[in-house]
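thread from #wetlab-drylab

HS: before we spend reagent money on co-crystallization trials with 4-nitrophenyl phosphate, can we at least see a predicted complex? here's what I'd submit
DV: go for it
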Amino acid sequence: MPHRILFVCLGNICRSPLAEAAMRRAVDERDFAVEIESAGTGEWHVGLPPDERAQAVARTYGIEIGGYRARQVTLADFTAFDEIVAMDADNLSALEAMRPTEAKARLSLLLDHVSGRSGQSVVDPYYGGEADFETTWADVDAGARALAKALL
Ligand code: 4NP
């Protein structure tokens, strides 16, 4: 059975699509069966592609994410996925608050999986600049690699 992993941020246009892309690549490199999606706790950007700056930083690392479309987290996600991985503490709290009692998905912060960074958030780059998106990429790539290694 494949591992099913959902990455979650606020808008699903900056951090979680980049985490999805980094995880797809980390898993590709390991030839490992896994289903990967991303979603947002907020609804403002549903149906939209990732932020241009997120698309640009992914392209820098050779990954095209322009075809991704934002969606909002649903209650069904808590049974459809094994792991729901939040980008920051606010989104983790929102997920904990909406989690159905029978849900089996494990909730965590992405950086919980990175040695020495447990409890840290992937900082929201939305109001930042290019350098902030580079930081986001470095964080989500470290998280994705650690997660892929842990799941193998
Ligand atoms: P994300 O970034 O949660 O990483 O996708 C954000 C996108 C949009 C907003 C905030 C954060 N917003 O306030 O619209």
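DV: Residues 9-15, 44, 124, 126 surround 4-nitrophenyl phosphate (CB under 6 Å).
HS: ok that's useful, forwarding to the group
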